[in-house]
Design a protein that fits this description.
The chain contains 5 helices and 8 strands. It is of the alpha+beta class and 165 residues long. It is globular. The mean pLDDT is 95.
């Protein structure tokens, strides 16, 4: 049974371990730490099986600039699952839970950079993302509109922590 919940301070070492283990390097773990330290980590979820944390999913603040307006939006990532627990629904559970929480919290737009074959199942769309300018433009940039109030285009600015990747 996979249990998804918001991170608590006692989870931080486990979150670092999951991100480092999933990606085989510390860059993503460092990114999460910096997002947290900068106050840009909007939602941080962990997935547990029993007492063990086996997954982590980060949602951070970004902005969409459209003329003179800066509209708040969300970046999904990194999504990390320990290698021995991958392909068992852990990532999917965290992403679905996070999207539900964001929708309930009034968020309107979520961006992700990743495999379209994976993220399309959650409603992310690379075609819609083409209307936005991001530092990561290309076929793997996707967007999920959570509300009709979301901007339809604009320049996307990620949290400063992403510049370190």
């Amino acid at each position: 049974m996979i249990a998804v919940r918001a991170e608590i301070p006692a989870d931080r070492d486990a979150i670092r371990s999951v991100n480092s283990g999933a990606f085989g390097r510390t860059a993503e773990a460092d990114l999460v730490d910096r997002l947290r330290a900068d106050g840009d980590l909007l939602l941080s979820l962990v997935a547990g099986i029993g007492r063990a944390i086996v997954g982590h999913c980060a949602f951070s603040r970004l902005t969409v600039h459209n003329h003179a307006d800066a509209i708040p939006a969300v970046a999904l990532g990194p999504v990390a699952v320990l290698p021995e627990r991958q392909r068992r629904g852990v990532g999917q559970s965290m992403i679905r839970d996070g999207i539900d929480r964001l929708r309930q919290g009034g968020e309107t737009l979520v961006f992700v950079l990743g495999d379209p074959g994976y993220y399309q199942r959650f409603g992310f769309d690379a075609g819609v993302a083409a209307a936005y300018r991001t530092p990561y433009d290309g076929p793997h940039m996707q967007v999920l509109r959570l509300s009709d109030d979301a901007p339809h285009r604009g320049e996307v600015r990620y949290a400063p922590a992403f510049a370190g990747l």
